[in-house]
# Entry
Amino acid sequence: MRAEIESATAALIGKPLWTCRRAADMATFQFGGRIKGVDYYGRPSQVGDYALHVQCAWRITRGDEIVVGSGDLYYPAEYQNEHEEFPADFDWRKHPNRRDKLLRLLFENDVREFIVQRIEVGIAGNLRIELSGGFF
# Structure
């Protein structure tokens, strides 16, 4: 399995990662050039030459800091720490959530790009993508 993952992801090296979107709770990381099209609702949209669809736990880190992770989806956008309570009626499908907010900030609304420097494939399909700027 490791060789298959290495082969499939090799094309990403040297390409920019320029956004992460989501379909429900699945993350879609967009790499390479930008292809114009329309989204499910008929609105103008862009997709990458390559996309990595992730529906498991993931995170983007820089140094010892977790910048954003999959679990941020389940917290309100303005949520700051685990000691803070949030509304009992919060629903990540309807209300602004922390994951979407942090990704917008990280990618500066799809303007900021990170170049894929290296990809490491670990056991059980574990994938670590090293990006420019010290991000993983």
